Each structure stands twice: as structure tokens, then as C-alpha cells.
Amino acid sequence: MTVELYAFTCGFLTLPRTFLMKGEKGVITVPVPSYLIVHPKGRVLFDTGLHEDTVEDPASYVGDVIAKYHTFHFHKGEEISERLRSIGTDPDSINIVINSHLHFDHCGGNAQLPNADILIQTRELTHARTTGSTNGYLLTDWDTGQKVRAVDGEHDVFDDGTVVCLPTYGHTPGHQSLRVQTEKGGEYILCGDACYLKDSLEQMRTPGIIADREAALAVFRRFRDMQARGAQIMFGHDPDFWKTIPQAPVRLG
Fold first, then answer.
1. Quick one: which of 140, 118, 113, 132 has its CA closest to 54?
2. Does domain 4-242 have CATH number 3.30.450.150?
3. With 0-12 CB in 10 A as exposed, 13-18 as middle and 19+ as buried, what is 233?
4. What integer pLDDT is reported at residue 183 of this predicted model?
5. Element (H, E) at 104
């Protein structure tokens, strides 16, 4: 069974380094990734980047608190719908969107995929509903009227072991990562925000802002085990790492 994996960067954000690694100084400019998985039974996106309204006026869309700490480098043509069209994929053809979590830079493009079901951990959805539009959650990003498939814990999307949601709680209470088994490149772990940087994993250093530090460290240990057996860890926002990652339409795995 052939499963194809493609990577996109959908703009960049500049933010304080301590957000990514506690105690760091200065700022860092990071990519906003998304992935397309082409499976014989459907097309899946893992995370959808930023909302299209942040191209023109991000501060008005995200609000003062987010805008205070984030500078947006996001241009027309970098929205997930346009990135898909640029490789000949109709956004309407996406069947499932898997959100790692519901922060603004991971689900902002959900509404651009109108025919997709949204697959999310139940506890993340509950947390977002409780939180409202605060602490990185924006109601207009994730409450888009699409069908929501809430799952609990590990979830095999196509019941064949090739695309599997992995609960990786810590960054948020209901964060999930995605394991993708490809014929070409082997096993990939799409981290989302469970592991921002390569240095995070190597040094076992958690972010300055985190929901559950001990849970995040447990996830790091699990990622190390996966890495040791040959899985490629796709760090969520590592600018140096992402310079080495081929962009769609070049196939990653």
C-alpha cells in the first residue's frame, strides 16, 4: 500500500525564544508547517497553518495579546488552500484534517478545507471550548461548522497502521502527534508542538509556556525511543531543521 507524505511551510512567525525553550533570550523566527498525506482511502492534512485574514492585518484577527508577542511573516499564496493548489491539489478534495491542537497557527486554515472532517482529541476540544478565545485559541479558527470527529487516545485513521494519531499531551491538555508509515521514506513522527526544536529533544528542555511539563518530558522520552528505532522526528517549529526538508511538490516520504 502506497502512502505519500508531503510537507509545506505556510508562512513564518517571530516570537520570544523562551516560548520554545525555557530561559532562552531574544527572539526566533520559525516556520508554520502543514503536511499532506495521500492514502489510497483518502487525503489527509495534518495542521492547517494560519487564518487567511492574518495575511493582510494579523493584529486585527488574532487580537492584542497574540500580536504583542508574535510578528507574522505570512503572504498571499502561503495559505494552505493556495499551497495545495500550487501542487495541483484541490482543497475541496481533502477528506480529513487532523489538528495537533487548536492554537491559532495549527488550525487557522481549517475553514479553507470545506469538505474535510476535523479529527481532534476529545480532551483538546473540551479544553478549547472551556478556554474560549484566549491563550492562543481563537473560536473562529476551529468552530467552523465542519463535522468534528473527536477521538480518545491513539487512533488508527485508516485501520491499517499507516496513519495513526498519537496522544502527546503536555503542550496543551489534548495535544496529539501523527505517525505516518510511508513506502518511500519509512516512519515519520509529525510532532506538532509536542517537540518544537531538535535541541528540545537532545537537551530534554521544555518550553517556557506549557500545560504539563512532566507529560511533555514523557513525550520526549517516547520520541527518543521512536528515533532510536529509526523513525524520523519532524520537529514542529525548528528553523534550521526545516531548511533541510523538501517542500511539496517534492515528496518527503
1. 140
2. no
3. buried
4. 85
5. helix 104-107
Residue with cell 507524505: 5
| Closest by Cα among 134, 18, 9, 140 to 66 | 134
Buried b (16+ CB within 10 A) or exposed e, 82-118: bbbeeeebebeebebbbbbbbbbbbbbbbbbbeebbb
| pLDDT tens-digit series, residues 212-237 | 999 999 999 999 999 999 999 999 99
Give the 3-state secondary structure of residue 141: helix
Cβ(176)–Cβ(106) under 8 Å? no
Residue 125: other Cβ atoms inside 10 A? 19
pLDDT at position 134, please?
Answer: 79
Distance CA 175, CA 247 (A): 25
| Measured distance CA(31)–CA(8) in Å, rounded | 9
